[in-house]
Design a protein that fits this description.
Blueprint (H helix, E strand, L loop, with lengths): L1 E8 L1 H5 L1 H22 L4 H13 L20 E7 L5 E7 L5 H8 L6 E3 H10 L10 H9 L9 E6 L5 E7 L19 E3 L3 E7 L1 H7 L1 H10 L4 H10 L8 E7 L4 E5 L4 E6 L4 E3 L1
Parallel strand pairs: 3-4
Antiparallel strand pairs: 1-5, 1-11, 2-3, 2-6, 5-6, 7-8, 8-9, 9-10, 11-12
Helix pairs in contact: 2-3, 3-4, 8-9
Amino acid sequence: MKIIIHGGFFSESSTNHETKVAKQEALLRIVKYSYAYLKTHSALETVVYAVSLLEDDELFNAGIGSQIQSDGKIRMSASLMDGTTEKFSGVINIEEVKNPIQVALELMKVDDRVLGGSGATNFARQHGFEKFSTEIPQRRAEYEAKLVASGMGTVGCVALDADGKLAAATSTGGKGFEIPGRISDSATVAGNYVNAFCGVSLTGVGEDIVSNATAAKIVTRVTDGFTLEKAFEKTFAELKPYDGFAGAIAIDKDGNLFHQDSHPRMVFASFDGEKEEVF
């Protein structure tokens, strides 16, 4: 059993030591809670649990603490994928929901598994998700001052359970001040993808990640026989022609973990019951 989580790219993590330490401590706490949960739950259940905890922490740009868009509203996106069934579900630009990843889990039960905008929000209300404002004073202050320094944030988790099954989940509060209707990579297979061989969660500039189809490429290459390291190496090289900005975490079916970013600013943590790693 292994688990790895990320807290996205945050520019203040590289410039504000206190902020970075707070995020590292939060990630380490959450990854250990999630590993304990993994002991008695499936990989799919665990990635939802872990991402929910990340969504509930205002240090991260997902759920509580999400960025505010150019029209003053918060719209969030999240997706979930089961490596065994290869089912993918997600919500795009959902509003006033505490945990978008839990709505994505609910969508696993229906045929129309990816919903956007008012359709996603209405589905959430119909399935018992109460109206909840995820806005915090810091985000409002940033919006009013038109500050975008902390805008590249996403959270994610990949888990391998005791039965050897993989799952991945990713959630984001957006990049801040975007045009309403902008689609994040987090609710696409470019930003969140898993099968029986490998699982990947991305963070960074959504447009770059979608252009590169990053998560799907890495998983496909591992499926075709690449090691995780080689799959990352080739895929990240393909971001370079347009200076693509991305970071990724992954676990393969053999329990190998890997992470890489375009710039050294992705915060993450992993745990396997004995060994912990945090950056």
